[in-house]
Specification:
Elements (H helix, E strand, L loop, with lengths): L2 H24 L5 E7 L9 H12 L12 H9 L4 E8 L4 E8 L2 E6 L4 E5 L4 E3 L9 E5 L17 H14 L2 H4 L2 E7 L3 E6 L5 E5 L4 H19 L4 E5 L7 E4 L1
Parallel strand pairs: 1-3, 4-7, 7-8, 10-11
Antiparallel strand pairs: 2-3, 4-5, 5-6, 8-9, 9-10, 11-12
Length: 251
């Protein structure tokens, strides 16, 4: 028997062993389930115990499933449809462990509409709030009569007020100074947007969304230079609506 035939027989034998081993392993039960939670912020709104509970109610005990019975795509689809879950990666490793890696949504805003409250994440996705848990994010309220029920992602057509609030909050979050100063956004149909600070008894009047970047730059400069010299306790209103100037109303 020449070397070529021996080599071919060896390859065929190895392939047969791989196929048999694969068939054998696929017929073994799942050994265990491991869930890894990943958070992009310090807020922990959903934990692995809650995920275990969701999966248990839907599928029962995974260790009673044969590995070939695990439908990875369906599990991922099921979890992605749940509240506050941004992304999911499900896979079986060689030891038969069902690995589930989850990334939580990153809320930046908690908005109070006329009849309910929701979180909005960085990308404009709508998430329900969780009982007894709260994210440390900016709150928005006022004359917000838009309904977010059934809406997955906000947009400028269906939810223009919420869309503008989200745009405003995103810009605040991207500014290291404003992020540490602003606590709340208030919307009034007539007067537009107002900002309420974390510290101090005054209101920052943004008005409508025109020239928003310029208005927030003025506010940034006011915190860096004006308030550091004069303090904010002397004022009741900071008006940013006017071009090229800031109007501070004394108490």
């Amino acid at each position: 028997m020449n070397k070529t035939i021996k080599f071919l027989l060896l390859v065929i034998g190895l392939l047969a062993l791989v196929i048999v081993a694969n068939i054998t392993m696929r017929n073994l039960n799942v050994s265990k389930v491991e869930i890894e939670m990943n958070y992009k912020t310090k807020d922990r709104l959903i934990c692995k115990e809650q995920v275990y509970s969701l999966l248990s109610k839907k599928y029962g005990d995974f260790t009673k499933y044969k590995r070939k019975e695990i439908e990875i795509e369906k599990i991922e689809e099921f979890l992605r449809g749940k509240n506050l879950i941004y992304s999911v990666d499900v896979y079986l490793n060689l030891l038969g462990t069902l690995k589930i890696d989850i990334v939580q949504n990153s809320p930046i805003l908690r908005i109070f509409t006329e009849n309910k409250q929701y979180y909005i994440d960085e990308e404009g996705n709508v998430c329900n709030t969780i009982k007894n848990k709260a994210a440390d994010v900016i709150i928005a309220n006022g004359n917000i009569r838009e309904t977010l029920k059934g809406i997955k992602t906000i947009d400028s057509v269906k939810t223009p007020i919420t869309y503008n609030i989200h745009k405003l909050v995103l810009k605040i979050e991207q500014d290291s100074i404003l992020r540490n100063q602003i606590d709340q956004v208030y919307y009034d149909k007539k007067d537009g947007f107002e900002l309420l600070p974390k510290i101090g008894d005054y209101v920052v009047k943004i008005g409508q969304m025109e020239n928003l970047d310029e208005k927030l730059l003025k506010l940034n400069n006011l915190y860096k230079e004006g308030f550091s010299e004069f303090g904010w306790d002397n004022y009741s209103e900071i008006k940013l609506e006017f071009d090229g100037q800031v109007v501070c109303v004394r108490k």
